[in-house]
Amino acid sequence: MGEYAVEVHDLHKDFGEVYAVKGVSFNVQRGEIFSLLGPNGAGKSTTISMLACLQRPSQGDALVMGHSVTAVPQQAKAALGIVPQEIALYDDLSARENLDFWGKMYGLRGAALQKQVDDVLELIGLTDRQKGRIGKFSGGMKRRVNIGAALLHKPDIIIMDEPTVGIDPQSRRHILDGVKALNQQGMTVLYTTHYMEEAQELSDHIAIMDQGEIIALGTHGELVRIVGEQDRIDLRINAPSELVMAHWQEVPGVSQVTADDGLISLLADDSNVVLPRLFEVATAVNVRITSVEIQEPNLETVFLHLTGRALRD
Amino acid sequence: MKLFDIAFKDMRQSLRSLSGIMFMFVVPVLVTVLFYFMFGGASADDEDSFALPRTDVLLVNLDAGTLPENADLSSEFSAGQSAALGSVTSMGELLAQILQQDAFADLLAVREVDDATAARTAVDNQEASVAIIIPSNFTDALLITQETAVIELYQDPTLTIGPAIVESLIKQFADSFVSTKIGTGVVIEQLVKSGAAINGALVEEIVRKFTAVAMESAQTTGALINVQPPPGANSEAGLIGEILGQILGGMMTFFAFFTGSAILQSILIEEEQGTLARLFTTPTQIRTIIGGKVTATFLMLFVQVTTLLLFGRLVFKINWGTALPIILAVGGIIVMSVATGLLLVSLMKNTRQAGVVYGGVLTLTGMIGMITIFTGGGANTSPMVRTVSLFVPQGWAVRGLQTAMNGGTAADILPTLAGLLVWVVIFAAIGQYRLQRRFA
Amino acid sequence: MRVVDLAIKDLRQILRERQSAFFLLIMPVVFTLLFGFAFGGFGGGDDEDPRLPVGFLNQDAGTVSEDLVTLLAQSDVIRLVTDTMDVADLETQVKDGVTAAAVIVPAGYGQHMTAGELVPLTVIVDSGNASGITAQEEVTAAVTRLLSALQTAQVGMETAVSQNVISESDKPAYFETTLARAITAWAAPPIQVAVSQSGAVDESGTETAVSSDNAFAHSSPGMMAQFAIAGLITAAQILVLERKSGSLRRLLTTDMSRGSILLGHYLAMFVTILAQLFILILFGQLFLKLPYFQEPAATLLLTVASALFAASLGLLIGALAQSEEQAIIFSLVPMFVLAGLGGAWVPLEFTPEGFQRIAFFTPIAWMMDGFKDIIVRGLGLEAVLLATAVLIIYAIIFWGLAAWRFRFE
User: Fold this and answer.
1) Which of A43-52, A299-308, B83-92, B379-388 reaches the highest mean pLDDT?
2) Do residue C133 and residue C79 come from a single domain?
3) Cys staple from C402: which of A6, A162, A212, C315, with CB 3.0 to 4.6 Å?
4) For residue B365, which of B340, B400, B342 has the smallest C-alpha distance?
């Protein structure tokens, strides 16, 4: 068995004419948190589905703890704990009954199972509510059980598919802290998200996906260095953005001008030099700049740099 | 065993669902209890009797004749009956008294009215079920040689059984009234043919002889026929027990098929909830998942059927037949329900189609299968109806159960079971194949 | 008018569901036919003898058993089936319900009976079966007549001897003749029973209504009543769906009042059931020859009242059901209970008084009674007024409950 928890080689998935994943390769080291970052529809969930043995790759293969997902899916599955994006639990069973059942599905039995259920209930903070039916739980509580059900068999790797979509900030915080705690206990985490901050906060390595491909891969520091020392400047003006965008593109030191919903973003080598020029140009065409924000380089900047599009909801 | 873990999880879920409990236990029992009251189970003094509804009878006695003073009526009745009667002046009055005896109080509620037209109007207005109109020459018809009389029964057209009982009673009495007259008439006629001289004394002697013979035979009534139940007939429970047995058996079969589909349908529910996909992320195979659900269905059906059989046995004293035949028959019902469930679920796209499956397909085929029960399963069931019921799997299931309940042996059930197994194999094979292919 | 627009929207949804036609029309027609045939439909059978089949095996020889056959053949309740020669087969036929009973005349029957010794006939019958009991009664009646005829022959013979009109050697022949004469006499006894039915004859003396022997006279209104409830499944599901999908909340954001919304849904259900009942009545009139159109005003009034009641029950089901599954349960359970209790399956006359009294607490019983007044009793408008009033009262009660329990959120 190699040093990697997950090795992905040239994974393809096509649905007839449509390619969802076009040759994805990456390795996840043992004990790290690895994030797949990308906008909706980038192919993250399809990649995860293939790792979870829910879909067969059209081409390529992946090894989970050395087990091929195409050749020996049962072994691969046993090493994985999957947290589905949607809540997949039985509403009419209690939290404990749900965990008990899912533990059994991973092959746990008897005292070992009961101890694991107790531990997981403790971990997700629902020991007091274990007899309550899932159907009567709040959204955040359901999410916690949803994650807990994937932890029972102490998998080597836990895969979480956008676990924070559509939940309140407090529950989100709880989940992110939980992921870190799990990782500190030695669990490898493969995490997908379209929130740049989450990937930034959690990950040892990040793969940025877009349109079925990985367009960048590395540590946070490595990725940010792709864009060099460029700053990102976000501006708002009191007129349609088209009036200034072409002019600003001409300004020396400016690259990648994009507009989205009235917010104009551009990358600049040195904002101290560029900013006064931007104001001059705006004045020349009778446009007023109403707000300016300068951001240090981050993953958002990287995505913008690589795709020319913003990584937003 | 993961298979059993899935099975127990499904059972737990179905026992927690309102509709599961409703269709598995409450409705079959409710309908049986309904029929119990429908057939007068609660009002009958002894449980074995089939309590018929009491018929409202209006009696119009227009009889104008009078009996001779020395008339001896004893020949017409058994000693007990005549003793209960007071003195009467006409046969019409006698018939009226007989019909109002306590012995018939459970069957008839008789009111005497004077006017035939009023009585008919009362029947027209649904104030009574039947009017019995005794004609004015009723006594004369019994005394005078050529005279004949017609008793009119005027009935509500929507009724069948009550009027039929009244008709049967009246005919019985008419027969017993006229037997002496017919006998005397025939004897005298034959004597005349043979050239004998007829006089009053001779006639009186003939009548006396008839009376003597009638008295004699009155002592021995009951020996006219020797009633034998067909071998293995269900005589212990009596009629109401048998009807209830049929109904509960039918309901049990009907709803066993609901249970079969309902539990197997959980595979579609799980697909829609996302738990099925999650199950596939665990090291569990589709075979195990379907197997677990089939096992759950078997176990729940076992619980359902056993509960209903015991309920029928303990509460309504229904005789389900001997052990081996009933086990075979019930086994047939269970296997058939599971196979039908598999087929139906494999044909369903999503749970929204449950309405069509429950309310439509299963109700329709179930009622067709139970048609022999609705018609009482007796000789008045036409062969066509029996054949129609065998076009649906429930018909075969019901047939096996009826064979067991009618005292059939294991060997009697085997042909039905064989027919049933053909359905099972086909349904299960198609269902299993389609589900495997869909989720693999 | 927006109430009508809402109703039209509902109707469109109802008609779009393929299951609607199934519940509304196909099932009731199939069941009317099925129940009709099962209980011997088509006016008691045109080509088939409606009398109960009774197996008959004569192990005796001679005139007495033949006389018994003559007497049994006079019955208009049973008919003899004489093609089986084996006792075990006779038993099987009774057990399987092929015959209502079986009669076996034992060897030496005639000889013993003639000698004045009573020998019982063997009657194989399942006393747990109504048709069996009927057949048994009829056999008993025939044997009683046979006994009377035998006694007549005996008395005749004795008298003839005592009157010296015959010699000792003539006795058997005289006995035979007298017996034969007595059997013939029983074919036309001096007192007979004639049955006539109320309401079936109008002023001109022609029959206007069908006899209750026509099994469709019960199954047609019965299944109409039952499936008026089952037909509500789709409509009730639409209401549930409307609540679940949020369209109901959206409707509330318009200035349409809650009452109008309920009324709109009610109108759709009413029109659906009314159309269903009309088609089923047309089917009954044209194919089953049930005289629904004999009294068009009465039929119309009763049908409208029935639809008013059924639709209000549908509104209540839609108000109470939280899921589509519940809509099915809430429709099927009252269908079973009300139809069973109200006499849609088993005519109420077969049930005890107490049950009948309870039955008339259900609207189904009133609906059945009203339709039977028209097609069986041949009565008119006046006769169905009470049933109509009761159905409308039920409609109001269910409406009230629905309005009270309806959750708009």
Assistant:
1) A43-52
2) yes
3) C315
4) B340
Evaluate whether residue B229 is within a structural domain. no
> pLDDT grade, residue B83 (50/70/90)?
very low
75-104 in chain A: CB under 8 A from chain B: 75, 77-78, 80, 82, 84, 86-93, 97, 101-102, 104
Distance CA B312, CA A124 (A): 49
Is residue B74 over pLDDT 90?
no
The C residues from 356 to 385 touching B (CB cutoff 8 Å) are 356, 358, 372, 376-377
Q: Which residues of B touch A78 (CB under 8 A)?
A: 283
Q: Please calculate the CA angle B91-B95-B98 and round it to the nearest 5 degrees.
A: 135
Is the pLDDT score of C131 beyond 80? Answer: no
Which CATH architecture best describes the domain A4-224?
3-Layer(aba) Sandwich (3.40)
Residue span of the structural domain in which B135 resides: 55-219
- Listed as ranges, residues in chain A with pLDDT below 50 are 313
pLDDT digits (tens, 9 = 90+) for C232-286: 877 888 888 888 777 888 887 777 788 888 898 999 999 999 999 999 999 999 8
Q: What is the pLDDT of residue B376?
A: 55
What pLDDT shows up at residue C46? 41
Are residues B274 and A84, on separate chains, in Cβ contact within 8 Å?
yes
Share of chain B above pLDDT 90, in %: 17
Listing from the earlier edge strand, what are the strands of the sheet with A18-29? A18-29, A4-15, A59-64, A67-68
- Give the DSSP letter of residue A104: H
* Residues in Cβ contact with A84 at an 8 Å cutoff, skipping those fewer than 6 apart: A146, A161, B274, B277, B278, B281
Q: Provide the CATH number for the domain around residue C164.
A: 3.40.190.10
Tell which of B192, B219, B246 closes a domain. B219
Asked whether residue B260 is domain-assigned, the answer is yes
Whether C and B touch, i.e. at least 3 CB pairs below 8 A, reads as yes
User: How many C-beta atoms surround the C-beta of residue A187 within 10 A?
Assistant: 20
**Chains A and B in direct contact, meaning 3 or more beta-carbon pairs closer than 8 angstroms:** yes
C281 shares a domain with C147: no
Residues B210 and B243 in one domain: no
The reported pTM is 0.69
At B423 the pLDDT is: 92
The pair of three-digit structure tokens given for residue C227, joined into one six-digit string: 């499936």
Strands A33-37 and A205-210: parallel
Number of domains in chain B: 2
Confidence of residue B341 (pLDDT cuts 50, 70, 90): very high
* Among B13, B21, B38, B217, the residue to mutate for chain C (most C Cβ within 10 A): B38
User: Looking at domain A230-296, which of 3.40.30.10, 2.40.50.140, 1.10.150.120, 3.30.70.100 is its CATH number?
Assistant: 3.30.70.100
Whether residue B212 sits in one domain with residue B298: no
**Rounded to 5°, angle at Cα C38 from C35 and C44:** 105
Residue C399 pLDDT greater than 90, yes or no: yes
Residues C106 and C15 both lie in one domain? no
Q: Is residue B287 part of a domain?
A: yes
Give yes or no for B282 touching A (CB within 8 A): yes
Give the residue, B237 or A292, on which the prediction is more confident. A292
State which residues form the domain around C318: 2-42+213-405
The two three-digit tokens of residue C341, written as one number: 């209790």
Q: Residue range C336-345: average pLDDT?
A: 83
Domain finish residue from B185, B219, B253: B219
Number of neighbours of residue B90 by Cβ within 10 angstroms? 20
Residues C282 and C336 in one domain: yes
- Burial class of residue B227 in the structure, from the number of CB atoms within 10 Å of its CB (0-12 exposed, 13-18 middle, 19+ buried): middle
B273 interaction partners in chain A (CB closer than 8 Å): 88-91
Please judge whether B2 and A77 are an interchain contact, meaning their C-beta atoms are less than 8 angstroms apart. Answer: no
Chain C interface, best mutation among B98, B190, B219, B389, by max C CB count within 10 A: B190
Is B224 within a domain?
no
Nearest CA in chain B to A75: B283
